[in-house]
Design goal:
Radius of gyration: 13 Å
Largest sheet: none
Helix content: 40-55%
Structural class: mainly alpha
Oligomer: single chain
Shape: globular
CATH topology: Cytochrome Bc1 Complex, Chain D, domain 2
Distance between the termini: 28 Å
Bound molecules: heme C
Number of domains: 1
CATH superfamily: Cytochrome c-like domain
Length: 113
């Protein structure tokens, strides 16, 4: 069983389950070696882009990030989840701040897809 991320321990938004069903199999199972080199231009320009780029591509494609729409506070919780459950190396406080701000701005709950 996959450990689905459940924001704040409450029900995950439908989008999380949907993305789990649609996105993960392909996003996660493709071995890193067969993935094209990630391109920073896959991510919209703005402060925090480089931090996301360098900290987040090691384990999965950006698709798994870009398909999400989460409030900044949930992105913040997700960073803990990534460290505790997915073995992500803890982010430096500055990187984390930049990443959470960036994700909340570009992939926030109210951002159109
Ligand atoms: C050490 C490996 C690793 C790193 C580094 C990593 N992730 Fe993940 N991430 C995972 C794994 C593994 C999953 C999928 C877990 C699953 O299948 O349920 C995942 C899932 C996700 C999901 C989907 C969450 C859900 O279940 O709804 C998002 C969004 C995400 N990661 C964002 C990020 C961001 C943003 C970063 C950079 C700050 C990052 N990840 C860095 C391992 C990592």
């Amino acid at each position: 069983m996959k450990k689905a991320f459940v924001p704040g321990g409450r029900f995950a938004p439908a989008a999380v389950f949907l993305s789990a069903a649609l996105g993960f199999a392909t996003a996660i199972s493709s071995p890193a070696a067969s993935q094209a080199m990630p391109d920073i231009n896959e991510l919209p320009e703005g402060p925090g882009r480089e931090e996301v780029f360098y900290n987040c591509y090691a384990c999965h494609s950006f698709r798994i990030i870009k398909q999400q729409r989460l409030p900044e506070s949930t992105w913040d919780e997700l960073m803990d989840w990534m460290v505790e459950k997915q073995a992500m190396p803890p982010l430096s406080p500055d990187d984390r701040k930049a990443i959470v701000k960036y994700l909340g701005k570009h992939y926030g709950a109210n951002v159109p897809r």
